[in-house]
Description:
Helices cover 34% and strands 28% of the residues. The protein is of the alpha/beta class. The longest helix is centred in the C-terminal third of the chain and has 18 residues, at 172-189.
Amino acid sequence: xxxxxxxxxxxxxxxxxxxxxxxxxxxVAAGEVCAITGPSGSxxxxxxxxxxxxxxxxxxxxxxxxxxxxxxxxxxxxRFRRDTLGYVFQSYHLIPTLTAAENVAVPLEIVGAxxxxxxARALLGDVGLGERAHHYPVQLSGGEQQRVAxxxxxxLDPGLLLADEPTGNLDSAxxxxxxxxxxxLNRRRGSTxxxxxxxxxxxxxxxxxxxxxxxxxxxxxx
Length: 222
């Protein structure tokens, strides 16, 4: 599903380049649950963003579902993200002026689904929020907002689900609920899941743990 080869990511910092990722090589098989861990600043979220095509590496190549994405233009990257992956952000990224159902319906409406709201409500039912579909994000707890974000991420049934610190803003009990839901959705849909986490409980549920330190993979690359 994912093939990363010799990826380097450098950013300007104080007049000199700062290396965020240093010659990272990683393979993730279709259907695998892969956790990326490491201390703050080790490059975890940067790597996830590169896999999603949200940023471009300074060097190296990234292939997802047979498509080499590092050379694609912005329109092609947008189509790639629409057709291939769902992304769960730590900070939820819900649209505050839309209800839970309307937030989940957004990707469905983008692809022209005529029953977008009905499907969105069904997805909210899958994550235990069927009775909260008409509520706005401000009316929902952090755990409920993350459930809405999960429902939105899987709305188009992507083959790849990326999650950046999905339990990072939640208390431990709510975090456990989100872990169970995330893994259950993944198993049910047979998708590939790559998640960035500091949560050892979440990492321990993955098929494989990849540890990053100072932009390099310490173990678990294959």
